[in-house]
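#lab-general

N.A. 3:47 PM
ok so I finally got the sequence cleaned up, no stray characters, all 348 residues accounted for. can someone with queue access submit it? mine expired

B.Y. 3:52 PM
send it over

N.A. 3:53 PM
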Amino acid sequence: MCQSLTQFIKTESRRLGFSLTGVTTPDPPPHLSTFENWLALGRHADMDYLATERSLQRRADARCILPGCRSILALGIRYPNPALVTPAAEHNSTGRIAAYAWGLDYHVVLPEKMEALVHSIQTHIGYAFPYLCYTDSGPILERDLAQQAGLGWIGKNTCLIHPRLGSYILLAEILLGIELEVDTPFEADRCGTCTRCIQACPTGCILPGRTLDASRCISYVSIEMKTSIPLEFRPVMGNWVFGCDICQMVCPWNRFTSPDEDAFFSPNRVAAAPVLMEELALDAQAFNQKYKNTALMRARRNRYLRNVIVALANSGYSEEKFRSLKLMMNDPNPLIKEHASWAMAQWT
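B.Y. 4:20 PM
back already:
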């Protein structure tokens, strides 16, 4: 029963669009001590919620989240590999957006798919059971669970890497109150001696031990950081306005993946290379309307335009750009005004 049910679930998850499916136990994850040491070193920047006692207890034992949890379903779904998808033409007046954010927000899409999967399981076995669904939203170590469920290994850039699908994969988990057949963990480290991701990172955020310094990561700086961008990072951010894909773009394991993405991650939903001058014109209402149900709402208008201004400063001087930045000095948000002032100073 356990084996046949597990196979049914894997078949059903593929039907729902998940590229990878594996099963592991709710036992303490093997890299918990690495996570705790990472926190102790303050590598989590100002994401203090990660270091609370409640958070640590739940990451150590999924049964603290879902009493009676007997299995964890680890899921992976692909999103566009920038090297295989042709975005809008890029030039020195466009920004760059991380590929996972080109489509609808996965926080909206994946929970619906997981709920549909749970409904199929309950219908198949004929009774309800306790469960919880997460995708980058709960106190669990997602990559650890995915590795334990056989979905891939954790690369030097801290991303989960599958030997055939690469690392452009979003992870999701379902904690289940039923027992399933457990998959074999992915034990092999196939990064070998390669250090391309470490060498390519413009801020040097990738650390030994498959960890990174969040405070130096462009993804963190451009999305989560609510204050001014440190001066040392502004020039090396280039034209990234939301997230960063550099450490994945140079990874050899992403070189041969096939362009097999779900429609809701299509680059048609969000411009992969937004025109910076046009973005400057977005007021709060226009930003919310343009980026509704996308991941860019995470940064909100003020942080996003802060990033756009930095990208514009890095794109080279023109009289038109200078005039536009001067107009941004009238914006009521002090974060935008401060970055506009800095940007103009780079050209004077």
